[in-house]
TrEMBL record:
Keywords, sorted A to Z: Glycoprotein, Membrane, Repeat, Transmembrane, Transmembrane helix, Transport
Membrane spanning stretches: 20-44
Naturally occurring in which organism (per UniProt): Apostasia shenzhenica
Molecular function GO terms recorded: ATP binding; ATP hydrolysis activity
Family statement drawn from the similarity comment of this UniProt entry: Belongs to the ABC transporter superfamily. ABCB family. Multidrug resistance exporter (TC 3.A.1.201) subfamily.
Record-given protein name: ABC transporter B family member 22
Coiled-coil regions listed: none
């Protein structure tokens, strides 16, 4: 492991040596300015003595040459920032112009008339695009019947979150199938698939708006009755009903009366 780490640093060491040499030459060359002044003074004296040039004019011309040269050198120091900006802009352009393999806005694909909720992973192999050499799922197979509760247990990096990401089609498996009610997810309309499921991640994101509008992010055209039903299903309705403004209460600003205290258990329920 130590040898591999040292080998990986070789390129950085070579780059650092070249940068140090270039900086040393740049700093050390500042002393050349005195030699340039001496050369210009000698040459200007020759112009005055043998070519009839005016002393003030010759000195002003020499001073402009030296000052302009120093300004040019100082300006070159900024070239590194220009080069870095150009490189960054090129990477940003690549990201903007990149066409994702999974188009979340695509309207192509089928829709099932009825969703039972049976999920199956069949011989799935997957590795993240950033680390194609590191397999996360290898021959992963799992069948979850509708209405059942399943827990995926494992250490960090074992593929628990990856399985959910494949189910949401944030990625497609390298091989194998991810099925919903026996249908390959890649044959279904992506936006419709995501509308059929809900997910509460380990670190949920809540927006600085009303509780109702936070719930509506899951279904934009939901009615008030559906929002209430969702809150009851999440075991959060009792907590929400205790807020001064109910569903229209701004999240993060509970405004509880001074005599009342927020029950930590209720707080955990709404966050989850």
């Amino acid at each position: 492991m130590t040898a591999a780490f040292s080998a990986a640093l070789e390129a950085s060491v070579r780059l650092g040596v070249r940068q140090g040499l270039a900086q040393g030459l740049a700093i050390g060359s500042n002393g050349v300015i005195y030699a340039i002044w001496a050369l210009i003074a000698w040459y200007c004296s020759r112009l005055v003595m043998y070519h009839g040039a005016k002393g003030g004019t010759a000195h002003a011309a020499g001073a402009c040459i030296v000052t302009g040269g120093r300004a040019l050198c100082s300006g070159l120091y900024s070239m590194r920032y220009l080069v870095e900006a150009m490189a960054a802009a090129e990477r940003i352009k690549g990201v903007i112009g990149r066409k994702p393999g999974i188009d979340s806005g695509s309207e192509e694909g089928e829709e099932m008339e009825e969703v039972k909720g049976e999920v199956e992973f069949r011989g799935v192999n997957f590795a993240y695009p950033a680390r194609p050499e590191t397999g996360v799922l290898k021959g992963f197979s799992l069948k979850v019947t509708a209405g059942s509760t399943v827990a995926l247990v494992g250490g960090s990096g074992s593929g628990k979150s990856t399985a959910l990401a494949l189910l949401q089609r944030l990625y497609d498996p390298a091989s194998g199938l991810v099925l919903m009610d026996g249908v390959d997810l890649r044959k279904l309309r992506l936006k419709w698939v995501r509308e059929q499921m809900g997910m509460v991640s380990q670190e949920p994101v809540l927006f600085a708006t009303t509780i109702k509008e936070n719930v509506l992010f899951g279904k934009e055209d939901a009615t008030v009755e559906e929002v209430v039903a969702a809150a009851m299903a999440a075991n959060a309705h009792d907590f929400i009903s205790k807020l001064p403004e109910g569903l229209t209460n701004m999240f993060g600003v509970p405004k509880f009366p001074p005599q009342k205290k927020l029950n930590p258990s209720f707080e955990n329920e709404i966050l989850l």
